[in-house]
Amino acid sequence: MSDNAANGQAPAQAQLSVQKIYIKDSSFEAPAAPHIFQDQGQPQIQLQLGQQVNALAPDVYELVLSVTVTCKLADKTAYLCEVQQAGIFGVAGFDDANRDAVLGSYCPNVLFPYARQAISDMVQSGGFPPFFLQPINFDALYAEAMSRRNEGAETPALNA
Q1: How far apart are CA 36 and CA 160, in angstroms?
Q2: What is the pLDDT of residues 76-101, one digit of tens each?
Q3: Which residues pair with 50 in a beta bridge?
Q4: Hey, which bits of the chain come out as E strands?
Q5: Which domains are delineated in the chain?
């Protein structure tokens, strides 16, 4: 029986709230413009994702989802578009593992559509054809990261 139940109090319920969504940083570069607009060829797109969690207060976290899209045409960079989409989330009543899962998969899923729209708008405003990021499975990325972390934690014990 938990201490709360022993005292006649209900156990704390898990609560999740989105308090604010905002762009923390964004940039767009077209270093080869205007000549790149005349070049022909199949563009090569590279996508980089990152995320950072910052504790702001007890049970309040800022999550920053970084999305970088680089488009190359032959050996020239057509454009480089970067967005740091951020959100402030209230995450209370979760154990550590569940809190980490919420911050590692649910919160990026909330932020991603905003980042996708910002990138699409910047690319089109930069004079390039519309670019739409495909959906990303943050649940799978989080599970993969946890698997790698667990394997890394076990490796020193195997070498000892």
Answers
A1: 55
A2: 999 999 999 999 999 999 999 999 99
A3: 66
A4: 15-29, 44-57, 60-73, 76-92
A5: 12-128 (3.10.420.10)
The label of the residue with tokens 């402030």 reads 88
CB 84 within 8 A of CB 64: yes
| CA distances from residue 90 to 5, 100, 129, 137 in whole angstroms, order as listed | 24, 13, 38, 22
Single-letter amino acid code for the residue at 150: N
Structure tokens at 63: 């999550």
pTM greater than the 0.85 cutoff: no
Q: Residue 45's CB: how many other CB atoms inside 10 A?
A: 11
Say which DSSP state 130 is in: P
The CA distance from 85 to 97, in Å, is 24
